[in-house]
């Protein structure tokens, strides 16, 4: 029993445990115990300065994040939410410094137990340069990323769980946390449920059909131009890439005028010859057909250029071997050409689907998501992203817009994650 007590007392007196305990109580004190006085003083100053300069900000920020204010017209809920999120980020940085202080003190104590001498000032700077300099250099970029990307995303997620609407907006009113009520309303209230189902199904149809058509057209033209019997390849490639060279918004506005049922050239000069007048802008079905055709026109040049470049890298001896074995054109396309194309381009093709899922430009510039549809608060050609835009800037339903944005982000992330994992390029990464 005495031996056990002696062992326990000895373990508490070991330098690593004592240094860890001291650094937990006061940052930098464990380093001073390890006779790393400059490092200890530096960490103590950093910790003290952090607490003095951020205490009031963190206090108000954390309070505001939980309450969103208590006095209408005096407390601004949105500002308190933003300050609260910034406080959480700053607090995480402080916790990271605190944990580094504990780990560093324990590491120095372990080295001391093993009989290693404390490194001098020059040796300490050398170790920092070798081990920590890369992290030090990426720190400004990381901080910028957090405040430019992570903070707005966190703010959007926070808004999705509040009652922030046009009729309940600060500073006149205070916001409240409503939990998952916005998501429940989206799938339970008729006006929101019907609109969401219609817009969501059209978004899926739009993404799949428009993207698939532009990929198929680009693949067909790339295979055609790559045929040895085709002459003037450079001229043909240049002409086919021209739609990509023109800014997309210019092409969309031109097409919007061409499809105008009153003065557009398509109805007036082409379809009128067959006694046809199609309501391209006023009928939801024909507006969707027009948008899909325009996106096919705008998107195929990139796919064509992508496939054309990959086709140049397919070894010619593989086709020669297939000819010797009596392979048909279809067999060469299926077993040689397509595997090479998909291996090199699958990630980019997946990104084409993700990009068209959120292709706001063509929807808004062509017809602003119209025409209107009875019984829903979105236009006939609105996809989720354009509907979110209208909810945010036209009807000021910020909470519902944020909730829909979260659902969109989750869908795209899950789709991209699983599709990337199935691609051969992803499976082969890191093997070489």
Automatic annotation (TrEMBL):
UniProt source species:
Aquibacillus rhizosphaerae
Function in brief: Part of the ABC transporter complex MalEFGK involved in maltose/maltodextrin import. Probably responsible for the translocation of the substrate across the membrane.
Q: Does the keyword Transport apply?
A: yes
- Could you tell me which PANTHER family the record lists for this protein? MALTOSE/MALTODEXTRIN TRANSPORT SYSTEM PERMEASE PROTEIN MALF, MALTOSE_MALTODEXTRIN TRANSPORT SYSTEM PERMEASE PROTEIN MALF
Q: What is this protein called?
A: Maltose/maltodextrin transport system permease protein
Cross-referenced InterPro entries: MetI-like, MetI-like_sf
Bilayer-crossing regions: 40-68, 80-100, 135-162, 204-226, 238-259, 289-314, 335-354, 398-418
Protein localization: Cell membrane
Q: Which UniProt keywords apply?
A: Cell membrane, Membrane, Sugar transport, Transmembrane, Transmembrane helix, Transport
Taxonomically, which superkingdom? Bacteria
Ranges where the ABC transmembrane type-1 domain occurs: 200-419
The text of the family note is: Belongs to the binding-protein-dependent transport system permease family. MalFG subfamily.
Membrane topology, record value: Multi-pass membrane protein
Keyword Cell membrane attributed: yes
